[in-house]
Amino acid sequence: MFKKASGRRCVTVSEGESANESEQRRSRCLILGCGSLGFAVARELKSRGFDVHVVDIDETRLELLKQEGFSTLACDIREENTAKKLTRQNCDFDVIFILSNSAETNRLALLNIKKEFSDAYVVVRATDAKEKEELEGLGADVVLFPLDIITEAAVRQVEKIKTEKRMKRLIRTIKSIGENRKYGIVVHDNPDPDAIASALALRYIMKENGICADILYGGIIGHQVNRAFVNLLGIEMRRIESDVLREYSKFALIDATVPGSNNSLPAGTKVSIIIDHHPASNDVDAEFYDREELGATSTILTKYLRWLNLPVDKVLATALLYGIKTDTNGFKRNAHPEDFIAAAFLYPRVDRELLDQIETPPVSAETVNIIGKAIQNRKIRHSYLISNVGFIANRDALAQAADYLLNLEGVTVAIVIGMNDENIYVSGRSKDIRVNLGEAFRQAFDKIGSAGGHSTTAAAQIPLGLFSGVKEKDTLIKLAEDAITKRFLAVIGVDDGGEG
Ligand SMILES: [Mn+2]
């Protein structure tokens, strides 16, 4: 009979017990052969809350184990009778480990165990690679070959050293700026939560190393969700205006790779640190450069914080998790296993209430007006909806209007056009799987402006210079709409014959 150190009874799952109840009880593990390896495994499993039972022939060793709270049984694991004894006690085990250091002992133990516990999940230790096949043939579910495991651990050590080196280089680069000098952490223009959260994390890493930095951005923070993000989390950022850049000795470029391309650093600026997750074709020259094609730059920075062992407070955790969520569109777009790992780390540290507030901020009156105009001015050709809202102050409202209009019954593509004194802006959304909207936008608008996007979302910007001769506002709006509609429908292959 198993000797119970804790006085707990060997509870059995009877046939009448529901599957749910049996799942709720602690997982029960049996260890046959408790030398140094068996002992290490037994201890680890017990520390993780498993119910661990040990069978070994050495009674003095078992006495020690019993004192540590294990259930023990003194038997020779090679004997058929041992497995029979275990069945008689009506214990069933979720996992059975056979871990002695003798190949022959393990082989016999496996044979006996499989006779009595045909359904049990059995893990067996092999002493050399050749035994693996034989043990599997005898019904072992997993064959552990210690050499393999050590080799793997060695490889992991190499990875760890690579990571450590990378972090050392980052810190060395940060510190190389010297005393009383400031880093400018530049994010792309009209920054999104991923860029801002990543910059926030890098600023924190710099601060922990005694270096001051500011987060710098160009353009505007337009979308109300992004404004809510910055305001609610109290993130301080500086807008890049004429002389601002002169105050900084070195620059870090975050969530972007090339100075001057969608960011307000002058092209050709020497950048000290570049961290990005976008695919890059250019050669990059920086003291520290890290580009991994993950779902978000926030994932890369979360890894840094973990590697550097820096505590992550609520604000930073909330910012980074929200950055990952938005860039992966709620883990639905370009999400990589590492994004999930980072999110799992951040999740328990997040301020849920704050996150809720960020995700559902009040919509500004202007945005409501623009959505209203977009609904009113909509024109539908086949399943394509095109709407011109005229002059706007906040171009992010266009994308929100397009999002909204895509919900209309029968509409598969929604395009919303707006303009300010400098540009015409076009925002598109598609749920038509036959259309790659980003590609269509590039074909239609790249020659007269800039355009880009993915298969379901796209945007374009066309300088008003094209229409510089037109003075009358209403005429301008009409001309712009006609030109854009024509170009887009031509690319899509729909004839612009009026309302459908
Ligand atoms: Mn990003």
Description:
The chain has 500 residues and is an alpha/beta fold. The protein has 3 domains: 126 residues, Rossmann fold; 193 residues, inorganic pyrophosphatase (n-terminal core) (Alpha-Beta Complex), CATH 3.90.1640; 128 residues, Diaminopimelate Epimerase, Chain A, domain 1. The protein is 41% helix and 19% strand. It contains 17 helices and 18 strands. Helix 4 packs parallel to helix 5, helix 8 packs parallel to helix 10 and helix 9 packs antiparallel against helix 13. It is elongated. The termini are far apart. About 3% of the residues have low confidence. The site of manganese (II) ion has 7 residues, from helix 8.
Fold topology:
Layout: H1 19-24, E1 28-32, H2 36-47, E2 51-56, H3 59-67, E3 71-74, H4 80-88, E4 95-98, H5 103-116, E5 121-125, H6 131-137, E6 142-144, H7 146-175, E7 182-187, H8 193-208, E8 212-217, H9 224-232, E9 238-239, E10 250-254, E11 271-276, E12 286-291, H10 297-307, H11 314-327, H12 337-346, H13 352-359, H14 365-376, E13 379-381, E14 384-391, H15 396-405, E15 413-419, E16 423-430, H16 437-445, E17 450-453, E18 457-463, H17 473-492
Parallel strand pairs: 1-2, 1-4, 2-3, 4-5, 5-6, 7-8, 7-10, 8-9, 10-11, 11-12, 14-15
Antiparallel strand pairs: 13-14, 15-16, 16-18, 17-18
Helix pairs in contact: 4-5, 8-10, 8-11, 9-13, 10-11, 10-12, 11-12, 14-15, 16-17
**Which small-molecule species are bound to the chains here?**
manganese (II) ion
What does the main sheet amount to? Answer: 6 strands, parallel
Q: pLDDT under 50 segments (min length 5)?
A: 6-19
Shape from CA axes?
elongated
Proportion of residues in helical segments: 40-55%
CATH superfamily of the largest domain: inorganic pyrophosphatase (n-terminal core)
The residue-averaged pLDDT reads: 88
How much of the sequence lies in strands comes to 15-25%
